[in-house]
Design brief:
The protein is mostly helical. The chain is built from four helices and no strands. The chain is about 60% helix and about 0% strand. The longest helix is centred in the last third of the chain and has 24 residues.
Amino acid sequence: MHTAAIGLRQLRPKAQHEALERARREQLTDDGKERYKIRAGVEETISQAVRAGIRRTRYHGLNKTHLANALTAAAINLVRLDAWLTETPFGATRVSHFAGLDLAPTA
């Protein structure tokens, strides 16, 4: 189900709701956290590839598109290798505008 408006709640069938609740509880376990570390790494790799422009290619045809994607992946690996060799620290996690607001009550 998809809701177009922000802030709307979804009503799911009972079986789907229970499966979602089980999955959320499982993510809180040590095993779930370990698996999420792997997923977080994969998500970062995908994000880096998207920022490098892998969604679109200037070439037509499967062979040329595959070559462009392979070269983009190789370039990303070179950037990561350089960061590892020069011991460049990871970038700081971005903070949303809302999270950056100081909402603490003032005395």
